Amino acid sequence: MAGSYSHIVTDTGNLISNEAFPNMIENLGDAYEAIEEMYGMIWWLAFSPMPHVDMPVAQRVEDARKNYKQGLKLAKEVDKRKQR
After folding, report:
1. Is this prediction's pTM over 0.85?
2. Domain boundaries, the chain
């Protein structure tokens, strides 16, 4: 994937700088892919069972990155209108 979470995060796990961003993301399609991956990560983490919190934070983030597609599916299943 040309635009992905790993393209916008440094080796130490920090978000790349605003100046470095254009070098890693070539077009809006790449930017959308990176955002989509992070959106899936958020939803996957939101549905993760509580025992998951005993893991180191970096491992939880990596698990979310690996499972972001499952998170995208979970997001589609939730009727957000009923969450108010």
Report:
1. no
2. 5-83
